[in-house]
Design a protein that fits this description.
This protein is α/β, with parallel strands linked by helices. It has a domain of about 190 residues: Spore Coat Polysaccharide Biosynthesis Protein SpsA, Chain A, CATH 3.90.550.10. The chain is about 40% helix and about 20% strand. It has an eight-stranded mixed beta sheet.
């Protein structure tokens, strides 16, 4: 069992997203918050922090727009070993953080990670609804160690290569973490009551992320990493969500492939992708 006196810290990477203010506002008092601003415009971290009116917030500003590096930095700068990984564009439902903390208290944090549930909102329009249903299918219908929300004890890093997130893998960092967790025999435990809401996404934003996911898979290939995949076939989407989300998934998968092939080409031409750094190189909290 986890030491009940060890705090559960909320780790939030953020790049120019004002939604982080609402995210932090949804966190109950008494839980430390670690925000890592990565690759932000000048002045954004200070402006965002000025709108966040609560104690117990620590932060760091990174010049590099690197999600994996931001997550790894946040994990190791947080007070205590227990961390709950969150996204800036999500908010916790009432009782969600307490449910994650209770699950860790009653579980074995060195042999388990604790996964909550994400509900994708839409803005009432068709395009936003298509994205929400597509995302719901391929990231929320299967139990994975993808964040958010994911509660972990950072000491499991010793069992999965000495790190949680590989700074060289800028995208698909969740899939890499999930694979190494499964390979180490660490169980993924669902947490009843730990629910978050993801803000509505437009098609352009979703496809931009999809292209980057394809980039991440190409980088993983170059690094010799295996990734856990999630359901994104047209047939599985049709069965789960219906015809229109399935058609959208067909197009989305083409964008994913484009990102993969584009990155493969850049790697072949020796472009500026650095793939030989130590994945564990990150500034840790002293």
């Amino acid at each position: 069992m986890t030491d009940p006196h060890s705090p559960l810290s909320i780790v939030i990477p953020c790049k120019d997203d004002w939604a982080v203010v609402d995210c932090v506002a949804s966190i109950p008092d008494g839980f430390p918050v670690a925000i890592v601003f990565n690759g932000c415009a000048d002045g954004f971290p200070e402006a965002a922090l000025a709108r966040i009116r609560r104690g117990g917030v620590i932060h760091r500003v990174l010049d590099e727009a690197n999600l994996s590096l931001a997550l790894e930095t946040g994990v190791w700068m947080a007070p205590g070993d227990r961390v709950l990984l969150m996204d800036a564009d999500c908010v916790f439902a009432p009782g969600a953080v307490e449910a994650a903390a209770a699950a860790m208290d009653s579980g074995n944090s060195l042999d388990e990670v604790f996964k909550g549930r994400v509900l994708f909102r839409d803005d009432g329009g068709l395009r936003s609804r298509l994205v929400a249903r597509s995302r719901q299918h391929h990231t929320a219908e299967v139990l994975t160690a993808y964040k958010p929300p994911l509660a972990i004890d950072r000491r499991i890093a010793a069992r999965i290569g000495g790190y949680l997130f590989d700074r060289r893998l800028v995208w698909r960092e969740d899939a890499d973490l999930d694979h190494r967790i499964r390979q180490a025999g660490i169980a993924i435990r669902p947490v009843e009551g730990c629910l978050i809401h993801h803000e509505p996404l437009e098609i352009a934003s979703d496809l931009r992320s999809t292209f980057r996911y394809g980039m991440g898979e190409a980088l993983a290939d170059a690094l010799g990493k295996r990734l856990t995949d999630v359901p994104r076939s047209v047939l599985s989407t049709l069965r789960s969500q219906g015809i229109l989300p399935a058609l959208y998934m067909l197009f989305r998968n083409r964008v994913y492939t484009a990102g993969y092939l584009w990155t493969k080409l850049r790697l072949l031409t020796n472009a500026d992708f650095i793939i030989d750094e130590d994945p564990r190189r990150v500034t840790r909290r002293s």
